[in-house]
Amino acid sequence: MTDTFILGDWGTSRLRLYRMGSGAVTARLDGPGIGALEASAESTLAERLDVWMHESAIADVTLCGMAGAAGALVEAGYAPCPADAARWLESCTRTTVSGIPVAVMPGLSCRTSNGIPEVMRGEETQLFGAMALHPELGEGEHLVALPGTHSKWARLVDGTVESFTTAPTGELFALLAGKSTLTGPDTPGNGTFDEGFARGLERNEEPLTAALFEARAARMLDGRSKDWSRGYLSGLLIGSEVAAQASAGMTITLIGDPALSALYQRALTARDCSVRLLDGDATVLAGLNLARGKIV
């Protein structure tokens, strides 16, 4: 029987597949996210599995993320919070692609104290992976931030994802910096992204809609560059998100892309918070390995 299996994180914007053998990653393939497919999810996955099947047999595939969304590979639903790893694993959905068994992990759902609905897909795998890699996160209470297109702030209590909230900060930045008039044309100007980011942090507790316009006005009157303006929007949005979630003296665990996490660390440090950084790829692999070990 082959010891080769596939772990995958299939998000809205990209697909990341990892071929595993002898307990380690032996190869990686990327592909389009669920939101950018030109063919069906099944045929897109089958095409990539075929690359590896020519090299060796594949025992099974375990996926998380938007692969389990309605209309994607197979609908996996949401495990309700509070959810520990066992409750999450119970909601696994199975299918077959190219004759290979595929397990798709569910997302998590919850309602805030005000009854507001919240959902996540993919981040839960990172949370359970983080607790597997760092058992101390499974004891006591911890606040974990997962920056991204839709940033999550999750409260962990004794190994359980108790609740979480979402801030679509990355999506807002993409829309404002790429689709609006706020950053203006790509013409010469002064100021770097980092300098703009610092200015955005300075204004992060002001009313957001009014503060946004400095991105444009500073270009017109102060000769700021497009990079400065983009940095300003990033600092303002991230700073506003952090101000709503974190207070001075708190310890926050950040899980995600190193470059994006560094911006959040900067905003948190400015609020006198302590920060612990964990790599997003490492935690999602740990979570997927945990899932496969229990469900195969």
From TrEMBL:
Transmembrane segments: none annotated. It comes from the Bacteria. This is 2-dehydro-3-deoxygalactonokinase. It comes from Novosphingobium album.
